[in-house]
């Protein structure tokens, strides 16, 4: 059995790991009692791997127009870099370092056994005060088992990690009292299980996480609670040289605990629990350039000092600044989806928090964001927010749903009405082909205008307005009462195009109204909705 990874296998591993953590995220969150019982380890690991997966897909997308495929080294390094810049929480930061260690060896053509050994060693070096019974222990056991069986390293590593995970309650008192295994170690086991499946084609049997929980054993104990430790978790990316980071480690180690600094080559991810969050950030400023700074207050009593939440809010993803302004005017909290940069679930969770409501209606406005939005909704629910996800696939469906939103009626009734409005809206998008390719409507050339109806190419034309008219004919053949047009900022003679399409609908379809909006910067050339 090959014990190396090609580019496709790395891509598959990343995808399977994200899928596995998505399935088990809530269960892993439920057993999170160390180092802080804040119930987010599964979510943090998911967000970390999500960032890694996006980086991997970006590498493959960059090679689509060329004749060559990405190299295994390019893909595995992208996976590690994506995890580094997107790492969340203690376990996510350590996982990023594990992936970095594997990338170092796999990028040089080493086998999996050597890569796992380097990963475990590098991760342990990154933690200021390593503790047994954690993800570090599980990683070390996986590496040791892989080294003892190099011909079947991947399965041996998984089995070694599984045995080590089951033993973690005997190594860490807080786990023993709670009757759980280490949450970070459990997440790592899921990642290793995905690696087994990517290499062998067969997924290893995995017992449900909650099977490890011995119910009824009482409170996990004071050292698992935030009340007995630092008040803040501080995370940031840092551009700095090695010498400055060495000094930073010493400084932060004196400020708090759970210190993990991972990375290299001038880019680092810093994680620490402190009472003085400002001092932790200032230390980063002295060392280099910190950015993407995230500060989380562990003390739930801080919530009581916040303003009273509103009853209901709508959070919507929009593909342009003009639509963001439009939806904001309608009272929604918006998340901007820039071209080629879909928002991660962490951004959606942050938007839900910004909405500061007891009830939230979440609309992703993209089929590709369905799983991302589901992950965000689950995380928000663990924080006590009632979230309803309406699986809108286009911004025009979100606009239709927002138009019937009534915050004063019952939540379920409001969600049903908004879902019905979105579902009754057919959608189309007009885009410009970047290269010659086969489509469901035939062969298109670079520069052709593509009319996609409900996600499939239905019309190919040379002119935006003429192609839009053909799209409208197809959509209105089944009837309709309202046409919504959203024009992008870069459409030449946008006002002329809008006037032409409004006139086309008015002259050809009686009793059909037309609404025109400006998508603004970042939006596609034209979005069409028919309801």
- The number of helical elements comes to 18
Q: Oligomeric form of this entry?
A: single chain
Largest sheet: 6 strands, mixed
Write down the Rg.
25 Å
SS elements, strand count: 16
- Mean pLDDT, nearest integer? 85
- Poorly predicted ranges: 208-227, 300-306
Structural class: alpha/beta
The global form is globular
- What gap, in angstroms, lies between the N and C termini? 55 Å
Major beta sheet, strand line-up: 13-12-9-16-14-15
Strand content: 15-25%
Helix content: 40-55%
Describe this structure in words.
The protein is an alpha/beta fold and 531 residues long. It has helices spanning 7-30, 41-62, 72-86, 89-106, 112-126, 135-148, 153-167, 173-178, 183-200, 242-255, 277-287, 321-329, 345-355, 370-382, 395-403, 411-423, 464-476, 494-508, and strands spanning 232-239, 256-264, 267-274, 289-297, 310-318, 333-336, 357-363, 386-389, 426-432, 437-439, 442-444, 449-453, 456-461, 482-488, 513-520, 526-530. Helix 1 (7-30) packs antiparallel against helix 9 (183-200), helix 5 (112-126) packs antiparallel against helix 6 (135-148) and helix 15 packs across helix 16. It is globular, with a radius of gyration of 25 Å.
In short:
The chain is an alpha/beta fold and 531 residues long. The chain has helices at 7-30, 41-62, 72-86, 89-106, 112-126, 135-148, 153-167, 173-178, 183-200, 242-255, 277-287, 321-329, 345-355, 370-382, 395-403, 411-423, 464-476, 494-508; strands at 232-239, 256-264, 267-274, 289-297, 310-318, 333-336, 357-363, 386-389, 426-432, 437-439, 442-444, 449-453, 456-461, 482-488, 513-520, 526-530. The protein is 48% helix and 19% strand.
